[in-house]
Amino acid sequence: MTTRVRHPYLDHPGPLAFAHRGGAADGLENTAAAFRRAVDAGYRYIETDVHATSDGKLAAFHDATLDRVTDATGRIADLPWSEVSHARVAGSEPVPLFEEMLAAFPAVRWNVDVKAESALLPLLELIERTRTWDRVCVGSFSEGRVSRAQRLAGPRLATSFGTRGVLGLRLRSLGVPTTPRVSAVCAQVPESQSGVRVVDHRFVRTAHARGLQVHVWTINDADRMHALLDLGVDGIMTDHIETLRDVLEDRGTWV
Hints:
The protein has 255 residues and is an alpha/beta fold. Helix content is 32%, strand content 20%. The protein is built from nine helices and 13 strands. This is Glycerophosphodiester phosphodiesterase.
């Protein structure tokens, strides 16, 4: 059973299916090609990441450097967009600007992990300029970063908990009194962390009691997807977009 919707971003029938980095299983993570493939498969929620270049452009890219997945090297924060734009993921696909992806896929809602402080203000300015408050949820491992985003944007911005907020929610589910940030609309969490279980009945029940949805990352196994959905989680992020779609179709909840 899902919790009530606290923000238009979450207004969707059934569990939310997130294409993690657009569906990273084929090696083209965070590219227009990956996003297009996810959209063509029926996905309306896509998870991505943003870094700011040295001239303030927002690249949809996970790592701080280009080295791991592209044919280029260097820290994105140290490079102008003119250089980053020449990098090719897996040797073939360009690094996209998040603004262009926001425009190219107008039916998509984006879950954006803000990877660096320098990307926060450009992202909020972009959302304001494009009036896409209902289409973006901002997350970060840094509780301070998402808290600053919420203070700057107010309730029109959907945010998830950072690490400290998730810890507080987990402790509360175990009976330890805590006061997590009340402005978040969801908790986006791993199923387990360092061998310690995070998501169980108590965690989901506690989150729902506080009006929070629970989205779990990154789940690529069909049995684990079914088990989490049986627990009542509200969304799953996956690299294997066909697997999650098949699971939700089997359960009659794919929309």
